[in-house]
Write a structure and sequence with these properties.
Blueprint: E1 2-6, E2 15-19
Antiparallel strand pairs: 1-2
């Protein structure tokens, strides 16, 4: 699912693609839950909220 947004302050009306999925803060691809997004991406898998149990 993709939407697009335009920044009204930008006179060039640059269109930005917005995903409904979480994005990797390092490279902008979809978040790396298990593996890197490609062989050329150096990003490590991201620890998702709730995946690590909290200490009691």
């Amino acid at each position: 699912m993709w939407d697009t947004a335009q920044h009204p302050e930008n006179t060039a009306a640059r269109t930005i693609t917005m995903s409904h999925f979480l994005q990797c803060q390092r490279c902008g691809h979809e978040v790396h839950t298990y593996l890197a997004c490609s062989d050329t991406c150096a990003c490590a898998p991201v620890v998702m909220p709730g995946s690590v149990p909290l200490a009691a």
